[in-house]
Amino acid sequence: MLELLQQGFGAVFSLHIMLLMVIGVAVGIVFGAVPGLSATMAVALCLPLTFTMGPQAGLSLLVALFIGATSGGLISAILLKIPGTPSSIATVFDGGPLMEQGHGVKALGVGIVFSFLGTIFSIAALMFIAPQLAKVALRFGPHEYFAIAVFSLTLIATLSAGSMVKGLFAGALGFAVSTVGIAPVEAIRRFTFGVAELNGGFAMLTVMVGMFAVAEIIKLAESGRHAHQSKAQAVSMKNIKGFGFSLKEFREQLPNAGRSGLIGLGIGILPGIGAGTSNLVAYIISKKRAKNPETYGKGNIGGVVASETANNAGIGGAMLPLMTLGIPGDTVTAILLGGFLIHGIQPGPLLFISQGPLVYTIFAALIMSTVLMLFMEFYGLRLFIKLLDVPKHILLPIILVLCVVGAFGLSSRLFDVWSILLFGLLGYLFVKAGMPAAPFIIGFILGPMAETNLRRGLMLSDGNFGAFLSNPIAAAFLGLALVFILWQVVSALRSKKSLVNEILRT
Amino acid sequence: MATTKKKELLIGIAMLGASLGYLLMTIQLPRHNGIDAAFVPSLLSAMLCLLGVLQLLSVRNCTQAVTEYHPDGEAEVAGGSDIKTVVKTLALILGYIALLNPIGFPIMTVIYLYLQFIVLTPLDHRVNHLVYALIAVVTSAITYLLFREAFDLMLPSGLLPF
Fold this sequence. Notes:
The complex is a heterodimer. Chain A is mainly α. Chain A has helices spanning 2-12, 15-33, 39-46, 55-79, 89-100, 104-137, 142-159, 164-178, 204-223, 247-269, 275-289, 301-325, 331-342, 351-354, 356-379, 381-388, 392-411, 414-432, 438-460, 466-470, 472-495, 499-505; strands at 181-182, 189-190.
């Protein structure tokens, strides 16, 4: 393993890739910091740039963006008191008050350092768990994959925030949209209306760009003209030693960070939910376990530590199912999946055998990007603060142009450009209806996986459903899915409030 | 609260409408014995319809406002929704994509950006035509040349000879 990692670092340390990663982290931090732009958007928009690069360079750029954008959210969370991304909502609770009390630099320093530690922790976990899991997953056939896909689908729909009916509907609708095109196994055209472009179904990237980027522009059109863009306050970096906080404070926060890191990792592994949920869960648990819970929400650095460690620990967590099973852990890794596929690489257990060096290049790129993020975000802070002031009515139209370019670049046809408009409109309607978009995306991606493996599994067992239940791993996952649904239904009947809803309320 | 209820009812109707549309299309799929290509769509249509009905039922039973889901945590903006700007923006995007091929990426991007900047300018901001036009031209040129030269992506050139 060490040898492979060394090779990976060797590849990453080339001038070309290092430069791409520096740009990636910087662009990522900007996307994370500007409210309304997200990690998903950053990776989706830059994916077309990687088409002509090799897989090593391309994937290094994408993971650099992922890490930069996940961490960048803390800048606006602390300076503007608006979370830049959903993953730093809980950072506002204590980061905002700290800023008001004049401890802005301390809050930023704590946030950045623990972002770094959370990411490194999760990458280490990824590096140790992934190869073992891949070995187990190598023995998986269609029965197991079908069961895992079904289990993942039940998870996303029920754990997504807001109304359970709407979450489930969004997931099922995503699955339904994925059935457009030539059916697996049988090759019958479904829902194509004779349009040749629809034979291949909708491209994943057009769905994501539409739902997350184009929808954002339509949303701005609705509210932007009446909104006042808050100006970022300046922070003085004079007389700041290290990262602006003492070693004692650092040591005091370690147990909290460890706990939050585990929460972030665990939630990150589950498909469909990620940093957007884990930062809130970690914050609440940290508050409960703290010696002085009453100071939370009034400027306790523990709150920033919990939120930022957890959201960044989700990175390694989300990468784990992607790399070992080919199942994305969240919306960003869903686009990364597209990035792998464009370069002709199928993520899954075989990745570790057929593309060993590439896997370790990705690990090395993750580690390097994290180190770059630590220094660039803290010492380049003033630059990023300036970028927060770029007016949105200038920024978002330019992003739309980039969306159009990206969609067109997929296969040089206007059909994909029309698709992003269609899904942009759908995404906007989702926002209006209070329906979460993440289940839709995961349904769209996992749906075909469930269907294809169901058909394959049935072919293997001559149309006999029993084979899914007599296979121990498949039966276990299907059982878990059933238990999960029952538990959700029972708790919904009992209190009418889901766990996540409860957390979001507090 | 009455408006929330009405809105949730509308959402329910939209959900059921979409589900029924999908169900109708599924019924028209060719069938054969056993599990076929229409199996999963049938299952999905049933589930979608069920969820649509559940939404409608929950509106009837629910007297309390349903909490809204805000994916990016942005606060609701005072002043409400501005449907006129939404329609203008959609029309601009529609025109942009429709004319992308005949007129070409460079020219259409300049026109789209310039007009979109004006449409989205906040009410308390002054529209600065010169700056807007400059940003539009520079963005269009950089994107077009960068993708054409560095990334080998042949964006439609349209009326321009290069």
